[in-house]
Structures are given as structure tokens and as C-alpha cells.
Amino acid sequence: MKSKYFSFVNIIKVRFLKVLFPVFLGSLLFSCETIIDEIDPSKFPGLEQKLVMASFICPQDTVLRVFLSKSLPIYSEIPKYEPVKVLGSSGDSMLYYRNIIYVKNALVEISDGVTKGTFTMNPTNYEYELRGYKIVPGKTYTLKATVENFKVEATATVPKEVPEIENLKITQFTTFNQGFRADTVNGFKMTFDWKDLPNQENYYKLFAEYSNYQKYPKEFAAVTNHIGIIKNYSSFFWNKSELNDEEDLISDNLVDGKTIYSPTGQGYEGFSTYCNNNGCFKSEILKNMPQLFDIQLWNISKEMYLYMKSVRQSSGASDNPFSEPVPVFTNVKNGLGCFAAYNKRVIVMENKF
Known about the structure:
Strand content: 35-45%
Helix content: 10-25%
Number of helices: 2
Structural class: mainly beta
């Protein structure tokens, strides 16, 4: 009798679940349908197209440059990709495809309150350029751009001083790298420090570059417009460990007036290879021609620091569908982008290795 009772109960449970499951599934599907609503784009505030302006000025620059574009609001039509030829650092012409909305015929002006300069557009790189306008450390500049019904402006103050680069150390190493077609390559590690400017908020950026001259063999003519002697550049990357992202942006928060130590910068001598049916061919580094290190410490404005930080954070989250959106910093009134300033300390030295 006991076993029959339990069998009867089990039968009821099974039948109950058979009835309950479709009801539960239906409610789940119904819920999914009701939580997705299409909202009229007109209900979103601030979706209008805006003018994008970007420029970074420095007392050491001989040419000032301003980049202008237009934003792409949500639900707007994405422009078609257009081929553009760009001259690379090696002298080669490279073909890129862009879908950026470049702005032509804009009035772009810069002023320190006394002296004004007007930019002209360079049709080759689509940037607005100004030559002969001197940027003075400590001064505040206003940049304005006007085109069609857009009118934007922003201000930036140039840092007065830059600390001295001290205790610069460069060491050489050799590594095996599959990226160089299973060949060895010489690299350099670099560190230095500087004394923070006291009693003020400071932001710094590190930059270093190694350059040499290389001879490209005639076989390279199959893949490049230039053969013979070419100047080669290699930028340094700044990391405290191989797992960290680029750490070239530094704040003096908690270290005001103290010595700041750079992370280790790493760069490579670099060479080019080309392989065909006849074998592999490698560029030759010319040891009798200049091989230079260009080491720079930038004192950057807060706007430049915040903008670069936010751009990197936003780019790093772009491939993660679960990451929260990161707003990109802007100080452009009535528009988007950034106008900022920096001052720099430069050391150029020969490669003694």
C-alpha cells in the first residue's frame, strides 16, 4: 500500500510538471518579447551631429595642425570607405581606406588674446596647418573653428617648464622573435627619472624613438616603391611588466615634488625581410651611418592627459560586449574632441653599442 501511494504521488508530480513547463516557457517567451522596445530616436537627447576638433600644440613645433571631422550619431548612415594614399615614414606610399567625414572650407583660428593666426587646409592629409605662429610656454590659447552651422572653440594653457631627464640608462639585448621570420633581433631597454615640479599639478608623457639607416636589396622592389638606403624608425613601449598596457602617461599624484622613475622602455633595432621562391632577403643596417636615440619627456596639460587616458580605455573596451561604455573626454565647446598643450625636454644621442 505504501509503494502504491508513492507511485501515485510521483505520477501526479510528473503530470503537474508537464503542465507547468509549457506555461513557464510561454511566460518566459512573453517576457522576452515585452522587455525589448524600439524607441523613437527623437526621444534621445543630444543625438545631433557635432563638429569634432583635435589639436595638440607645443612650443617646439614648427607647424601647428588641427584635425576636423564630424561625428556619426546613433542611427546615422555610415559613410562609404574611400581609398587614400598616405606617405609613410620610410618614404613608401601606403593605401588606406577611410570612412571619416573630413571637413573642408572651415575657418580655423588660434589666438593668445593678442596675436591671431589662421590655418589653411592641406589637401594631402586633410589637416589644417599653420606655420610661423610661435607657441609660448605659460600662455593660454583659444582655438576656434567655424563651418556651415557649426561653431566650436576650446582653450589650453602651455606648461611653463619641463624637468631635466636624469640617470638615463640604455642597455642592449638580443632576442629570438618569430615576428622577424624566426630570426634574432637586437633590442634596447631604457630607464630614466626626473624631479617633479613641486606645488603644482603635473602630468607627464614619455616618448623615445630609435632610428637607423638600412639598405633595401633590389628584391624589395616587388613590395615597395623604394629600394636603396632608407631611414628606419622604431618607437619604444613603456611597461612595468609584459602583461601591462602602455604606461607612458604619468601623474604626480602622491609624489608631488619627488623623484619619479620611468617604467622600462623597450625598442628594437628593426629590419625588414622579404621572401619569394628564390629565398628570403633582409635589409642591411648601415653601421657607418647615424644610429640615434631620441628621448623625450613631455609635461602635458591636464586636458591632454584625460583625453589620452579615456581614448585608450574606450578602445580597450570596444571588443568586450560585456564592458561598460567609457566616455571619451572632450573640452571642445559645442562639439567633440580635444585641444591641449604640452612642453617637452629632448635628448638625442648616438648608439654606442
